[in-house]
């Protein structure tokens, strides 16, 4: 009997299209409409006012700043995640590897809001770190820049999105033929040489996928900035909230459109260059 | 195991980075859990003799938080049911789609990358235009998009237990597509279905940004908690955060342990 693949896909396809993509496309169209102060809504006359407003009031720098924070977060996550993935795949016994994978799986399903909030207790004036620094005598006064600062936001973002980098990296390491590493070694290469010339090139799809996941998630984040950022700190999502407070729909839609084009553009290019989906084929625990 | 990875300083360095990664993830929330047992108003680690459930008892009186919790449990249950059902269909479709597989995988995964605020805002203006008032269903709609990619990946992973030869054997014995599904595939992937349900439930329960524009009169729990956290956090919020965090950990640990014991059974 012929298997009903396309039929089975239909309900999900409809839901994802109708709830996920159609609203985004409508927003894209509406971002070119004109704001109507009489109705607090928009009317279908072409206008670029929303896009012009992005260039005002430092909004552009918030977008660039968010992308910068996302880039930094993704870089740090790869730097911590790569050795962690090596520990899981190359060093740990089967038991420890499973335990580590479990520990990196759990955070996906805990509240990122609670986790960001808990950093306040650690970084605050009376927090864990300041208390320890003063007990040991490194500082006399509590450090104020630890909390409600860019530093705190970056720490919170790394903590939130680190798990997203680990699994693509482990998957890409599982695909490295062990004999290649052994061969490199038999030919006299030390660890660093083997790492640079064999392991790193063979795992670049995993590195890129992990980096991209973290970058995209961090660029769209709001909670970490709301919980840990200073008074002036902003992020794309927080800025959209601020714009919506004065119900400036075209501007909110224009910002959303620009961000979605940047993020989906990156995912598209990444997928073309590195065949990201292939990474997940044949995933097993 | 490759011998050149066995050098001692290198091993130490790799394990150290792993420990740092885990510490960044776990130390703050676990510290919060510990603080929640301290009866003092000032957040600090309690002395062993001071440990008390004061703030947990006080939770019972937090009416707004409790009704928000009920709303979130309702939304999470509905999200998890629909996400698991759709994810099962999507995974079965994936198995049949041949060269379309990668594209289908990407398509189902994509909504995960849409920033929560943007997804919520876009849904809320559409719902507003078609005259749908915000209620638990509108929140569940946005949570579904967030949970589905995870549920899909989990069920897809569990499909590895279904060998092609099992299905061929069933088909040779005259089993229809439906019989193969009910008698062969579903029993084999049952742990995956349970995992997908629990994971989706937790993702919805803990999701904050997407609900912002879509809640009706009744807040979801994360939204209510966000308000409390930013208004001179009373320590009851530590107790609530701590319990939600621990409950989530236990639920995931249960799923992973069940998956492991099932794995062992299959291998035997």
Automatic annotation (TrEMBL), chain A:
Q: Which positions fall inside the ABC transmembrane type-1 domain? A: 63-270
Q: Which SUPFAM superfamilies match?
A: MetI-like (SSF161098)
Q: Which InterPro entries did the record assign?
A: MetI-like, MetI-like_sf
- Transmembrane parts of this sequence: 7-33, 70-91, 98-118, 151-171, 198-219, 251-270
State the family named in the UniProt similarity comment for this chain.
Belongs to the binding-protein-dependent transport system permease family. CysTW subfamily.
Protein name as it appears in the record: ABC transporter permease
**Membrane topology category:** Multi-pass membrane protein
Where in or outside the cell is it found? Cell membrane
Has keyword Transport? yes
Q: Which UniProt keywords apply?
A: Cell membrane, Membrane, Transmembrane, Transmembrane helix, Transport
Domain of life, per lineage: Bacteria
UniProtKB/TrEMBL annotation, chain B:
Location in the cell: Cell membrane
Q: Which InterPro entries match?
A: Bact_Polyamine_Transport, MetI-like, MetI-like_sf
> Which topology term describes how it sits in the membrane?
Multi-pass membrane protein
Q: What is its main location?
A: membrane
What Gene3D superfamilies does the database record attribute to this sequence? Answer: MetI-like
Could you confirm whether the keyword Transferase appears in this record?
no
Alphabetically list the UniProt keywords: Cell membrane, Membrane, Transmembrane, Transmembrane helix, Transport
Q: What region holds the ABC transmembrane type-1 domain?
A: 69-258
Q: Transmembrane ranges?
A: 12-37, 73-95, 107-132, 144-163, 184-205, 237-259
Q: Which PANTHER family does the annotation name?
A: PUTRESCINE TRANSPORT SYSTEM PERMEASE PROTEIN POTI (PTHR43848:SF2)
Q: Which family does it belong to?
A: Belongs to the binding-protein-dependent transport system permease family. CysTW subfamily.
Kindly provide the name given to this protein in its UniProt entry. Answer: ABC transporter permease
